[in-house]
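Run log, item B.
One chain of 355 residues. Sequence copied directly from the ordering sheet:
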Amino acid sequence: MRVRVSPSAPFRISLDIEDYNFELPEALIAKEPKSERSSSRLLIAEDRLIDKKFSDLIDNLGNGDLLVINDTKVFKARLEAQKVSGGKVELLIERKIDANNALALTKSNRPLRESERLQVTNTNIFADIIKKDGYLSLIQFSEDIDDVLDRFGTVPLPPYIDRKPDDNDEARYQTVYADANNMNSVAAPTAGLHFDNELLERIKDKGVNIASITLNIGIGTFKPIKQNDVKKHIMHSEKIYLSESNAKIINEALLSNSRIFCVGTTSLRCLESIYSKFDEIKSYEGETDIFIYPGFKFKVADYLITNFHLPKTTLLLLVSAFSGLDRIKAAYKHAIENEYRFFSYGDAMLLKRQD
């Protein structure tokens, strides 16, 4: 069953995007991962702010708690190409439609036109611009897309990292629990990057249950909100999937009033989308364009493990809705003053849902 999940944010609330802006020193943007995943810092932002190591997260988990992870896997979505007529082009595949067609973000000195032909650099592989669709283009490849990306694609590091990916990124810009069957994301669920296998085993040994969901992350996750009135922002759509077995685990936690910890905003968006659609958690496969901002009433998650997000983005609005704008502002101010590392390869926070 494939049903579109409608946005469920309370549009009667008027918010100014400038309230979700902040100045960040360039030096605090993490350009490289830490040497060990769980050695990142963790800011516990509840009634007070507490500085910890990420591995200390286990002290906040107890027997019967539920940890919800997003098992999506990042594919090598970035390709270098050139116009047949000359000129470099960068392609970032946002979504694979079938074996030869994909939606992609294009970057070139001059705008590309429909019917224009591109050639993947140093290959005999061609890509035709079939149709322009907003900020994306429908592109048809002359060979199987998965094969092309496997051979010539590179890891799609976020633009603020501002360097070419290396061999280390292929492993580190990926969670240890990423499922090869779900290799459809152009960005990592970054809160999950802090978990290593040893920490996960210790968490399981403590009696914590783990459930997996899948949300395939698209380019829109980095898209800033440009309107002052946030309700005018057009939310991007992403594929989500929750199996029957994992829905059962989550429902058992809800029925027993166990605490539910979502690893990352993607896990949270997936669960709240499904609950908003059905008024319960059940197995589901479809799309979500749910827009969560202050005023939203959370039904599933009790805690959120998340990285520090870019200003003026839907993700910053989401964490503010979850934990309260004042608490988020205080946490970000503390993190900047104490030189936490920000964004995808940066440090993390543990947030409690506001009453």
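Observations after the first pass:
- Residues 4-74+170-352 form a domain with the QueA-like fold (CATH 3.40.1780.10).
- The chain has two domains: 4-74+170-352, 78-153.
Flagged for discussion on Thursday.
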